[in-house]
Amino acid sequence: MHSTTANDAPLKGVKVIEMGALIAGPYAASVLAQFGAEVIKIETPGDGDPLRNWRKLHDGTSLWWYVQSRNKKSITLNLKSPAAQEIVRELVKDADIVIENFRPGTLEGWGLGWEQLSAINPALVMVRVSGYGQTGPYHKRPGFAAIAESMGGLRNLVGYPDRPPVRMGVSIGDTLASLYGVIGALLAMHHVKVNRGSGQFIDVALYEAVFGVMESLLPEYAEFGELRERTGSSLPGISPSNTYPCRDGRYVIIAGNGDSIFKRLMHAIGRADLAEDPRMARNEGRVAHNALIDGAIAGWTSANELDHVLAVLEAADVPSSRVYDAKDIYEDPHYRARGMIERHTLPDGAPIDVPGVVPKLSATPGKTEWLGPRLGEHTDEVLSKLGFDAERIAALRRDGVV
Known about the structure:
Structural class: alpha/beta
Strand content: 5-15%
Low-confidence stretches: none
């Protein structure tokens, strides 16, 4: 596999200033950092990003922090201080991208909003992530992923119809907003650098990031009055695609919803009658008889152990999978072969395995240069590059600015 260097990183020379905390804004900056951008993360003195203390900790620091903040430089600034605000303005002068996820109006109150920063650097691209966007009647409300997933239509579809909606196991609303932020930043930067256009800001609302991936949810309602509801483990309107029990108490996911795949699946489970039934030749016919098909598949899987089920389906070229947990992922040879589990070292020398970089570029792939930094680890370095001498930096520290 090609090994990227500082000279061939695709975002080499791109400077990113990150202001914000937790997931949505910082994860967007993390993606850019993994592909060579210099990301300067601004944190509050003393406490830093709350993510440093979320979930499982190693020696007082979150493992999540080490992963999400890889390749970033951490500086501390008290953004309520006029002196710190001036430092931000200095940093922005030659920055390409600013990423922030404060509640709308917060940066403007500090003199660091879009109008102020773009006046300093007309080529600047600013990614603004918030719960509801920078405009609209809800824009001043606080917003988190859980709320966005509800308003965006996702939560109503997750779970079983006879039970309350449930959350996905990760903060998918934040992650979707992050990825839209990255896409927007790269589009806007292309416009500046290739089209010779001016800078602009990208307004990413968490709920809109969720709504943007809701497939045909809205047009089905607008055209037919159809309200898509929770369907448990099945895929509505697509047959067969479901989760089926095996004899050993484990489960298998089977997606046999292609016309030719369905025939192979039915032959594999000994139901040639269904494979050749003309009613089942197309998806619409199978949907009409979904209960019959699911019953046939579940009857077969229930009589066999998971490993046997997977072997038979692989031989028949039918898409299928066990339901992976972290242990399954950790032991899977395909993950290893594709470099999706990387080993690094924590500050105390302990080894740690972290997810690999996505996506994979053939000539200039991303890379983990270092794990999430100590709070303020790069403050002196960054300020020195702005022309601050040691005495001035010490004074800022005494005054609580950094």
